[in-house]
Amino acid sequence: MAHAEITQMEESAEQMVYQSRHKLKDQYQDTWQVIAFKRITEDGAKDLKLRLSGFPGTANILHNHPLIIQTPEGDYFQAEDISEEAFTEGRDPQGNIGQYALSSVIDELPTKVELVLSLPTEDENEIKLAISPVYIQEWKELATKE
Question: How far is 58 from 81, CA to CA, in rounded Å?
Fold first, then answer.
């Protein structure tokens, strides 16, 4: 059994964040930070989100398109792009950062096989990240945090 790498941070008296962070390489050997997180606020908001962040210039993610999650058997799941939430004060989402809603698909994701995340890019070369079953298990544990 793998040890979950979940951290807990109190952002304020009314807000707690739980997160799982990992660094992965895509098919081009570029490094991406993969952060699954759940922010629990006083008003009850507690959606599970996934932020993918590459080095500037790594890619220009095509925002407003879903993240595709694929199983080895060919099953697909889509996580809605919510990148605009990662940027405030009218700033546009950066090309090397994408944020996605995981709450709607997390229960359906298998935990026994490696999954592949496919990020659409402006140049039509998808970025692919292989996700270990251990990470999916961590994300499912995050989803249960209250």
Answer: 19
